[in-house]
Design brief:
mainly beta, disordered N terminus, nine-stranded antiparallel sheet, single chain, about 375 residues, about 5% helix
Length: about 375
Amino acid sequence: MDLRLTRIAGGAGLSIKSRPFGTNENGRVHLYTLANPRGIEISILSYGARIQSLLVPDQAGRRANVVLGFPTLEQYRTSDAYFGATVGRFANRIANGEFVLDGKVHRLSRNEGDNHLHGGRVGFDKKLWRARTEKGQGEVAVVFWYSSPVGEEGYPGALEVEVRYSLDSRDVVRIQYRAAAAQATVVNLTNHALFNLAGEGSGTILSHDLEIAATRYTPTDRELIPTGELLPVAGTPMDFLLPTTIGSRISEQYEQLILAGGYDHNYVLDRDSSSPHLAARLTHSYSGRGLEIRTTEPGLQVYTGNRLDGALTGTSGKRYERFAGIALETQRFPDSPNHSHFPSVVLRPACSYLSTTEIAFAIS
């Protein structure tokens, strides 16, 4: 599908509002809603700095929420699904929950067997972030920030983190991450939204078409830890260089798909600059909805909701079965601290962590 971005001059019709969403032990949680004249409306919670809903019109102008999520704070507090959350300090997996930095072994919390996943037992997805709103020329935004203390989940050094969500009149949601460390540490931030362009709760994403700008990927072992190899996608079911229906090969007897129960793999993006570049396109022909992911990051984790089993009930009141959504997580590579040839995730006091991801919506 040709993703055609509809451009609207000026910032007229852009709005931002907030309302309480509940209270946890650290204070009141707020929901911030950004809207533009085209009918795009994104709502973000201060709990986990997470996307709670994302309304997008179809080709007939009917709006639907295209991300998986919950209607109540309690569901977010008790679930480990990470729906829409900012995950960190380290998104994805670290083998055996440990790494060596400057000659010292750092042992992290282990929350997926022997491994560390998405920041640990109480990662950034379970934190109450402070927030402020911004309205500028042609966009509205909400900025969240959190101070991670020394030793949180086993990580060295204190870390100051900021995540900025913005929506403009060109139907682009932009997520910008910033972080600064008091001493050397590792950082890898992403958003764990699971998309279903037919509307959350409407079924699976197996009929969606996916295109990924990557000629290589990082294969994993049976615990989904990268082996360290960078293998070509050519000639395998991992190849999405051309738009391909997700369900067309997901059940093939291919070792990597069998180990993960579907797609749960990091793709090595083909980049030509340090500015946001194409990572993936996702389209749904029946509704006409499409999105394009652009990022400054070198990797894209593709996860097809393999572990969903119908136990969770979403914002629509319907249960999320296997393959109910797809995550397209821009990131550094999984287990990077333990693979010297992977892109570095080390952040030192003299440097800043900067990352940008854009989600551009279009209607066919």
